[in-house]
Predict the structure.
Amino acid sequence: MIKQWIRAIRAPFFTATIIPVLLGMAIAWAHTGQIFWMKLLLTLLGVVFVHAGTNLLNDYYDHKSKNDELNLYPTPFSGGSRVIQEGLISAENMFRSGLLLFGLGGAIGIYLNSISKGNVILILGLVGLLLGFFYSARPIRIGYRGFGELVVGFGFGPLVVGGSYYVQAQRLSIEPFLASIPITILILLVLYINEFPDYEADILANKRTWIVKLGKERAIKIYHILLFLVYFTIASGIIFRFLPFFGILAFISLPLTLRAIAISWKNYDKIEELLPANAITIRLHSIIGLLLTAGYFLDKLLLR
């Protein structure tokens, strides 16, 4: 039963929340010279709870819309967890558990807000909960209206990085929001490349993802452009000093990016053959996010 719930919450994808929390913490440490470890742990738990709840509710509402049922070619990266479709967990249990996880994440957010200045954490947390719930839920259904990619980028980028920074530094700063741009693009691309196998099912369910709106051939060109934009923003960030000099380490990942481009260009209209590019995109998010985080520590320890 535990394995089924781990599968349902899609635990391997929690790097999407862990990386931005660590980046926000690193920027705060570079600014203040302090790390509040208990606050960091609570921040990690809070955002992971909300992320897990969002995944459960997304599966529930994609089941209600028949989107996952219409998907005849699910992959490890797309098509939902399939626990409802395989009769492992009921849709009602998924819904109730999703709300429970939202409640746990919300409770942690309220506590962190109570020991912080103002209500910044409360506001950011509320925005995160609303975006997570209405990503698939009616009447808004963000993911069905062509805004899902942008919302995922914002939610797992500036929202989490900025919130993590504020918990540690107790002040607002433009730097964590600017520094989050590369991982914002990357997490958007994780969702984006994972939408390719869902193309036919999304059309049938009237889910207007960017892949559906653009068509696969044009969409893969956008994927390649955005991958290069990640490195452009990192280079710009170093030049204009909203990223650390040692952020240049992120360019170590460039051969992996070129491999993802080569694979995806040849196989964008194939499901199984595209899967290595899906996996590489997830790895790029983790690798570049961790290297940027390390860059802040190295910058302060060696250059300041």
In short: The chain has 14 helices and no strands. The mean pLDDT is 96.
